[in-house]
Design brief:
The structure holds 2 protein chains of 2 kinds.
Chain A (H helix, E strand, L loop, with lengths): L1 H14 L26 H15 L16
Chain B lengths: L1 H15 L2 E3 L8 E3 L5 E3 L7 E7 L4 H17 L4 E7 L4 H10 L6 E3 L4 H5 L7 E5 L5 E6 L6 H13 L1
Parallel strand pairs in B: 4-5, 5-6
Antiparallel strand pairs in B: 1-8, 2-3, 4-7, 7-8
The chains are: A mainly alpha, B alpha/beta.
Chain lengths: ~70, ~160
């Protein structure tokens, strides 16, 4: 148990200082690729989402900022 | 509690700051530009140098490119050099963008991010300003419309030194 704690502490103390899979701001080329976007056309998605909100009376209930109160 | 609040406010303030004053010698580097010519920072001593890290996938960088070109044209004669350090993994991306938005300042390719790493680049775009003595003077992170005026202010100040 004690050894495990020491091992964990060692990992915590050394691991974070050189955390390797950290994407730096200048390495985000692949993340910024259009392929990585949730939708192809954000404007059209926004419109369709508005239609959905209005038709289903679901405004704010599906993950928009502000929770389900409909005031976000 | 008060101390904690103070610290938090300080932290938030430092995060919202987009321009920082720097000091100490600018780390030297040699990169090849898109035409294959080698450019070394140390060779530009005596001139005010703006090192702008950009990439073709970075929206604000694309936005400021034509403005940077204007700034370069305006201050070139006064002893100002602008180095655009492109961090695109493939040069073709940079060339494709520059074909549509041509610029006159030297664009250097830093495909593996070595120089960006050397400068501990924290944001895209980032602009480092180097004074005539080869020391770092300012760092500007990010770009929002209108911030080119801050660039001009800094460049004028450094040129007057």
């Amino acid at each position: 148990m004690k050894q495990a704690v020491i091992l964990l502490m060692l990992i915590f103390s050394t691991g974070c200082s050189s955390w390797k899979p950290w994407v730096k701001p200048y390495e985000r080329g692949n993340l910024a690729d259009p392929v990585m976007a949730f939708d192809r056309d954000p404007v059209s998605t926004k419109y369709l989402h508005h239609v959905y909100d209005a038709r289903e009376a679901a405004r704010g209930a599906d993950g928009s900022a502000g929770g389900g109160c409909g005031c976000g | 509690m008060k101390y904690l609040l103070f610290c938090l406010t300080g932290l938030l303030m430092s995060l919202s700051l987009h321009a920082k004053e720097l000091s100490g010698p600018a780390p030297d580097f040699t990169l090849t530009d898109l035409e294959g010519k080698k450019v070394r920072l140390a060779d530009l001593k005596g001139q005010v140098v703006m090192i702008n890290f950009w990439a073709s996938w970075c929206g604000p960088c694309r936005q400021e490119m034509p403005l940077l070109n204007d700034i370069y044209a305006n201050y070139k004669k006064a002893g100002f050099v602008l180095l655009g350090v492109n961090v695109d993994e493939s040069v073709a991306d940079a060339k494709g963008f520059l074909a549509k938005t041509p610029v006159n300042f030297p664009v250097l390719h830093d495909g593996n991010g070595k120089v960006a790493d050397l400068y501990k680049n924290q944001a895209m775009p980032s602009s480092f300003f180097v004074d005539r003595k080869g020391n770092l003077a300012y760092l500007h992170q990010g770009y929002r419309p209108g911030e080119e005026n801050e660039y001009k202010k800094v460049i004028k100040k450094l040129l007057a030194q």
